[in-house]
Design a protein that fits this description.
The complex is a heterotrimer of chains A (412), B (256) and C (424).
Chain A lengths: L4 H31 L10 H26 L10 H20 L7 H41 L2 H6 L3 E2 L14 E2 L2 H32 L2 H16 L2 H23 L8 H26 L2 H9 L4 H30 L2 H6 L17 H9 L8 H35 L1
Antiparallel strand pairs in A: 1-2
Helix pairs in contact in A: 1-2, 1-3, 2-3, 2-4, 4-14, 6-9, 6-11, 7-9, 8-9, 9-11, 10-11, 11-14, 13-14
Chain B lengths: L6 E12 L2 E12 L3 E5 L6 H8 L9 E9 L2 E2 L7 H7 E4 L10 H12 L5 H14 L3 H4 L12 H13 L5 E5 L7 H14 L4 E5 L3 H7 L2 E6 L2 E7 H6 L4 H7 L5
Parallel strand pairs in B: 3-8, 3-9, 6-7, 7-8
Antiparallel strand pairs in B: 1-2, 1-4, 4-5, 9-10
Chain C lengths: L13 H43 L4 E10 L9 H13 L5 H8 L4 H10 L7 E7 L2 H7 L16 H12 L3 E5 L2 H4 L12 H32 L4 H19 L2 H15 L7 H25 L3 H9 L4 H30 L2 H5 L20 H9 L4 H37 L1
Antiparallel strand pairs in C: 1-2, 1-3
Classes of the chains: A mainly alpha (412), B alpha/beta (256), C mainly alpha (424).
Chain lengths: 412, 256, 424
């Protein structure tokens, strides 16, 4: 069960806040009645004083509680300690007294409350920064531990990946080869197949639905594409595993050549289908952004609709479309569940789409699931792969944003 | 009312509907060749709709419906065997706001000839581009920067560029939809001088807001009001001696 | 002279007309590519849904068998499995040896039956009437998924077992029931007893925790960026950096958030693996950028004139934003947030990283108990080879997709409602 102590604390601080609000509000109301409204600043209404007091009391209570927790090494039974309990009640009480003393008609309470609120909101926005720092920090830190054992060059350019087998028998804790090239190659192959499917299909879906389709077709196809976008990747993984992979294997058997059920082709195809909605919605945005006047000009010059689309709309929207493709590639590279479920775990260096390949995300999952001691080279290798994954997707995203922004400037 | 010039377009009972609303109603009009015809009238009078009848640009609007008969050189341009794409190759159009493609000046002008296969060789294409730019009075300004992006030109230059783009497909007719409305007075003057030159080769139909402009450049003027053609006559006569009281009211500034 | 000679004159030169045929053909082709792409996408969706429905719908029912077990003779042994096998053998009137016992036990859910036997231990000495689920193999057979005409080596049931199962069916001892266990049981090693209770509860906790953290923080951050963040000077640069940062964060692969959770929440803060609290924290971080982006879009759609007029009447920035902008943007922000939560519900990879792949046979009671999540359960079940696991994984997918549909539907209805009310 959860320790109830933190909840007691929340209740105590909340009660103190309500008390402070009421007391200060009462005093300020009497003050206003006494001084008449004309002489009271609009910034010093009773509710402003009261809100300020409640906010300060809350802050003080939480601060004292956190200091207490830190001092006690995170012991949650703090509530049972009389000294801290007294501090948590008396501290805010002192703050309330201070606020009561400050209830004056010329005290701009509202500006102070709003300053506090604004600072609070800013802190929330900084969570984004904190997350990024956390990601970069943890990946870099863990990866650096890994690179103490395995050199960066061996990792990036080695062609043999087999983290599960020890180099020498009986060498506990040590484990095998960490040359990630086969893993990168597999990722690249699967991404390539996915993009071969998703790029043309997604683009043509966007074009067809916005330029050609009847409203009835649109009414059916648009929600279908949205459903495709809303299906979790674990479902696609299952689909690749039980339907597409076996189908391709059986089809190949029938044609007389052997193909693994875990072929890169099956995985890439399903991933491509998953990415179609992303490509089509991003392309749709950029195609719509091409001004109608350009299309009209082209039509008036005697272009057919497809000529206008190919020669004017595509060309004008090209940076945006490239940006969309970059984002789609980034998504494909980072996609995990499809490959974990339907691709191989063994790293083979191959360019053949009918072979089973592994990917960066598959290896991260393989290295980190199962009972392993943290800080072994295997688990650390996962962070090194994660770092590579993060850097590549980040570069792709930045590239995509840059291309798209340049494109925006051109039409504004 | 129309004298010796041959007739380019003749429209009979032309009506245009957008969905349920009627933009043009039973218009009969004969537009002479190698001449400037101005379409004037208050906003929403149907003058732009009429203009778009001549190159079937209304086809592009999904709920637009054109009825009646329109003949160009005697050929019914709304006949089922007439491809609007080929019609538009003979009827160029310049829009209110110039919309150069975001490509080079050269590519903009070469766009039409490439579409219609008008130039088999690069040399011929170069020739076509130069000729079109010269006719549009832009050659001297851009001949050294043919590869620069067209959107970088000034608005006045852009308007002449899109004119050159239309001329490059060698049309018989040029439709202009308020071509001067986004231009400053100097650029407007240049454009008007250009129209004066071009009318020796082309049939020009121009929609304009400015009665002064219509009076300056056109040979014939049509006045439209609430989707109907009120009066169509030689410009001089229409402005000095209008037959209809509504025309009179409009040109004297009583409404519109 | 208005009427030119009425012959079939062409509007364009012969060359151009001829060329036009090719151009029209290209137009038709292009259109066809478009239509083919749409058909491909919809066919893929159809195939996906159909294949999952085909494997999964049958898991919502299960076959149960009524057994009248004569356990008197066997009460000498305290081995429940053996007692059960012998009683089954008695029922079919066959001599029990080890091979027969093995095959007989594979017909019913042995664990369910022995549990029932143990519960009724004191009542031994009489004929026991038990109703238990049949085993996964038998269930698949009754559902028509075992082809008895194939050679015995290619199926898991022997000829003898099939004969026994047919006898149960003929004597109407077998009944097909709604599979309640799928919703109320936790995970199990036996497919016929495995359920989604732990996974569903785990998912609910994870999504609630993630939502409770990410919604206020995300919406607050969006309000700050939209209404208060400095736009000029150094502050402006920081604001823009923050925005780029959020956009990038939204596109960081989900699995990286899992690595973050593993390194920070588990290794640094020392929280336990496999618990919904950590899952919620990780998914909160994952949802946060999505919610900020959706909320910002909603806020940006509110015309500035509204806040400007409030400011001109002497309202403070805070009042202008919270009294005039936020209420109008609220429906869209809410919809974006709910859709973000739906995404979090389907998220799997980060949960794998923080150890939510453990085999959990207990229903979690608090966010600090080990649990699993619905999508993770799908992943776990799909890893086993038996048909019964695939059937259950498909059923879990159907449950997940149904929940997602409901959530998205609610989001859309809510948005329409709130918007309509506002426009009145």
């Amino acid at each position: 069960m959860i320790d109830p102590a933190p909840f007691y604390m929340i209740v105590i601080v909340a009660a103190l806040m309500v008390g402070a609000y009421r007391m200060v509000h009462g005093r300020a109301a009497r003050m206003v009645a006494e001084f008449r409204t004309e002489t009271t600043l609009p910034d010093a209404q009773p509710r402003h004083h009261a809100r300020l007091a409640a906010a300060l009391v809350g802050l003080a209570g939480v601060a004292i509680y956190l200091i207490g927790l830190a001092a006690r090494g995170g012991d949650p039974t703090l509530a049972e300690d009389a000294v801290w309990l007294a501090a948590i009640v008396l501290g805010p009480a002192a703050v309330t007294g201070l606020c009561l003393a400050n209830v004056r008609p010329d005290f701009a309470a509202r500006a102070r409350v709003e300053y506090m609120a604004e600072t609070g909101l800013m802190a929330l926005a900084l969570v984004a920064l904190l997350t990024t720092v956390g990601i970069v920090g943890s990946l870099v830190f863990e990866a650096s531990l890994f690179f103490r054992n395995v050199s960066v060059l061996d990792f990036l350019f080695g062609t043999h990946w087999s983290p599960q087998t020890p180099i020498r028998a009986g060498q506990a804790g040590q484990s095998g080869a960490f040359g990630a090239v086969p893993v990168f190659a597999g990722t690249f192959l699967v991404t390539l197949i996915a993009m071969v499917v998703a790029a043309p299909v997604g683009l043509m879906v966007a074009i067809y639905l916005s330029e050609y389709a009847s409203s009835r077709t649109r009414a059916v196809a648009k929600p279908a594409i949205e459903v495709l976008a809303g299906i979790p990747s674990v479902v696609y993984g299952f689909f690749a595993l039980i339907s597409v992979g076996p189908l391709i294997r059986d089809a190949a058997d029938w044609l007389g050549f052997g193909v693994s059920a875990q072929s890169a082709l099956a995985v890439g195809l399903v991933m491509g289908v998953m990415i179609i909605p992303l490509v089509s919605s991003l392309s749709d945005d950029v195609i719509r952004a091409v001004p109608q006047s350009l299309r009209n000009s082209s039509t008036a010059l005697g272009a057919t609709r497809s000529e206008t689309l190919k020669r004017v709309v595509f060309r004008s929207a090209l940076p945006g479309i490239i940006g969309a493709f970059l984002l789609a590639i980034s998504r494909a590279i980072g996609e995990t569940m499809i490959v974990v479920m339907a691709a191989s775990r063994a790293a083979t260096l191959t360019g053949n789409p009918f072979d089973a390949v592994t990917t960066v995300t598959v290896q991260i999952v393989a290295l980190l699931t199962g009972d392993q001691v943290f800080d072994s080279p295997r688990t650390l290798a996962a962070f090194a792969l994660g770092l590579v994954l993060f850097v590549i997707t980040l570069l792709l995203n930045i590239g995509a944003l840059a291309v798209v922004n340049r494109y925006r400037v051109r039409f504004e | 009312m129309v004298e010796d010039k041959p007739i380019k377009f003749s429209g009979r009972c032309v009506s245009v509907h957008y969905g349920a609303s009627r933009a043009l109603h039973n218009v009969d009009i004969d537009i002479p060749d190698r001449n400037v015809t101005a379409l004037i009238g208050p906003s929403g009078c149907g003058k732009s709709s009429l203009l778009r009848v001549f190159n079937r640009m209304n086809d592009v609007i999904s709920n637009a419906r054109v009825t009646g008969e329109v003949r160009m050189d005697g050929i019914d341009i709304y006949a089922p065997d007439v491809d609007p794409v080929l019609l538009r190759a003979r009827v160029g159009m310049v829009f209110q706001k110039p919309a150069p493609f975001p490509r080079s000046v050269y590519e903009n002008v070469a766009y039409g000839p490439r579409l219609h296969g008008l130039a088999r060789t690069k040399a011929r294409l170069d020739m076509l581009v130069e000729r079109s730019l010269r006719r549009a009075g832009l050659w001297d300004e851009v001949k050294d920067r043919l590869s620069m992006p067209a959107p970088g030109l000034s608005v006045g230059q852009q308007q002449r560029l899109v004119l050159a783009r239309s001329l490059a497909i060698d049309p018989d007719v040029i439709l202009m939809d308020e071509p001067a409305s986004s231009l400053d007075p100097i650029a407007t003057a240049r454009l008007e001088a250009l129209i004066e030159e071009l009318k020796t080769r082309y049939c020009i139909i121009i929609v304009t807001h400015s009665m002064a402009q219509a009076a300056r450049i056109s040979d014939h003027t049509a006045f439209l009001h609430k989707g109907e053609l009120i009066e169509f006559d030689q410009t001089e006569r229409l402005f000095t001696n209008p037959a209809d009281i509504r025309t009179q009211d409009y040109i004297t500034g009583r409404f519109g | 002279m208005t009427d030119a000679p009425h012959e079939k004159a062409s509007i364009a030169s012969l060359a151009m007309t001829r060329r036009m045929h090719r151009r029209r053909a290209a137009e038709t082709r292009f259109r066809l590519y478009g239509r083919a792409s749409v058909i491909f996408s919809m066919a893929a969706l159809g195939w996906l849904l159909l294949s999952i429905a085909a494997t999964g719908l049958s898991a919502f029912t299960q076959h149960w068998v009524d057994l009248d077990l004569d356990v008197r003779a066997e009460s000498a042994t305290d081995n429940d499995r053996r007692r059960l096998a012998d009683a089954l053998a008695g029922g079919f009137g066959v001599q029990a040896d080890d091979a027969v016992r093995q095959e007989l036990l594979a017909l019913v859910s042995a664990s369910a039956a022995t549990d029932a036997l143990a519960r009724n231990a004191e009542r031994s000495g009489a004929t026991l009437r038990l109703t238990v689920p049949v085993s996964d193999q038998a269930d698949q057979y009754y559902k028509g998924r075992v082809d008895a005409s194939r050679p015995a080596a290619q199926r898991r049931l022997t000829d003898r077992q099939i004969a026994w199962l047919d006898r149960w069916a003929d004597e109407e001892q077998v009944e097909r029931r709604f599979n309640r266990g799928l919703f109320v049981n936790p995970d199990s090693r036996d497919p016929e007893r495995a359920g989604l209770a732990s996974a569903i509860l785990g998912s609910v906790m994870i999504v609630l925790i993630a939502g409770a953290l990410a919604l206020p923080v995300g919406i607050g951050a969006a309000i700050y960026l939209d209404g208060f963040a400095p736009q000029t000077g150094w502050g402006g640069r920081l604001t823009r950096a923050l925005e780029v940062n959020i956009n990038n964060l939204a596109a960081v692969p989900a699995i990286v958030f899992g690595l973050l959770g593993l390194a920070v929440f588990i290794n640094v803060f020392g929280l336990a693996r496999s618990i919904p609290l950590v899952g919620g924290l990780v998914l909160a971080l994952r949802m946060f950028p999505t919610i900020v982006i959706a909320s910002r879009a909603a806020l940006r759609a509110v015309p500035d004139s509204l806040t400007d007029s409030a400011l001109s009447l002497g309202a403070s920035r805070m009042q202008a934003v919270f009294n005039h902008k936020v209420p109008i943007a609220a429906p869209a922000m809410l919809t974006g947030s709910i859709i973000g939560m739906a995404q979090a519900l389907g998220e799997t990879a980060p949960l794998l990283m923080i150890g939510m792949v453990a085999f959990v046979t207990a229903v979690p009671e608090s966010p600090l108990d080990p649990a699993t999540a619905l999508p993770v359960q799908i992943f776990l079940w799909s890893g086993s080879a038996e048909a019964a696991w695939a059937e259950r994984a498909s059923a879990a997918i159907i449950v997940l997709l149904a929940v997602l549909m409901v959530i998205n539907g609610v989001a859309i209805v809510l948005r329409e409602r709130l918007q309509r009310r506002r426009s009145l």
